[in-house]
């Protein structure tokens, strides 16, 4: 049985604290059935950037994937695509902001004639 997302958040939070990380943001974007990957930023308590931690980065991106899926936004890279930001703090809070891209069309009949 897999661990709950809450349990995983707590485990990752402990690892982040061990490295002096206060929060992490994971930005994602994609369209046309292609994901552009993730941009991960580690921040200290003052919001200053920290050096990336590869071993933790993988855990955080997996956590972001789980949150995106749990929110019903899996497939965000398909068709017109989507983008978003997953923010996670060592205090155990997580926030997912997601945008779906849409193509919208308006059609107006500008003229009609009959012969």
In terms of topology, how is this protein built?
Elements: H1 5-18, E1 23-31, E2 34-43, E3 49-50, H2 54-70, E4 82-89, E5 94-100
Antiparallel strand pairs: 1-2, 1-4, 2-3, 4-5
Helix pairs in contact: 1-2
- CATH architect. name: 2-Layer Sandwich
Kindly provide the name of the CATH class.
Alpha Beta
Number of strands: 5
Instruction: Tell me the number of structural domains.
Output: 1
Structural class label: alpha+beta
**Residues in helix, %:** 25-40%
Overall 3D shape: elongated
Give the SSE string. HEEEHEE
- CATH T-level fold name: Murine Class I Major Histocompatibility Complex, H2-DB, Chain A, domain 1
What would your notes on this structure say?
- The chain has a single domain (5-100), classed as Murine Class I Major Histocompatibility Complex, H2-DB, Chain A, domain 1 (2-Layer Sandwich).
- Helices cover 27% and strands 31% of the residues.
- It has helices at residues 5-18, 54-70; strands at residues 23-31, 34-43, 49-50, 82-89, 94-100.
- Strands 3-2-1-4-5 form a five-stranded antiparallel sheet, with helices on one face.
- It is elongated and about 80 Å long.
């Amino acid at each position: 049985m897999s661990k709950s997302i809450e349990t995983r958040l707590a485990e990752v939070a402990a690892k982040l604290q061990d490295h002096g990380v206060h929060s992490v943001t994971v930005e994602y974007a994609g369209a046309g059935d292609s994901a552009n990957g993730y941009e991960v930023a580690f921040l200290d308590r003052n919001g200053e950037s920290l050096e990336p931690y590869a071993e933790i980065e993988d855990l955080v991106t997996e956590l972001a994937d789980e949150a995106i899926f749990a929110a019903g936004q899996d497939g965000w890279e398909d068709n017109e695509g989507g983008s978003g930001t997953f923010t996670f703090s060592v205090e155990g809070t997580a926030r997912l902001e997601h945008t779906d891209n849409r193509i919208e069309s308006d059609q107006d009949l500008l003229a009609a004639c009959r012969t």
